[in-house]
Design goal:
This protein is mostly helical. It has one domain (3-113). Helix content is 67%, strand content 0%. It has helices at 3-21, 25-39, 43-60, 63-81, 105-113. The model has no long low-confidence stretch (mean pLDDT 94).
Amino acid sequence: MTPEIRDRLRGHRRAAGTARRASDIDTAWRLLEDAHVLSQPWAVAHVGVHWAMLRAAFAQRDGAEVRGQVLRLVVAGPGSLVGRYPVGNTGRAHVAATAPMPVRPDLAAMLSRAGRRTR
């Protein structure tokens, strides 16, 4: 993981927690979704983002999202370790866990600089 991605992940997770505590759940989810896209190639970071997503789902009292995040917590680490993850997937429960999605250009550039796939 590059320092650029590590710093972005830390910043987004921290800002998402602040937004969640301020009841700005839309901002929290947007930050966590971006963090998810960046974290997928690295198991520990990937699981950490899903943990933050689970906390947001509990705070929002969203049962479907809680269930989806629990499932993703189980598969995220192994998927990253073996390189089998849906590139660009935002990690939310309303998105199929296996569906690849387009990667926003700014995030794709960061992943490319880290030598990770963006498609």
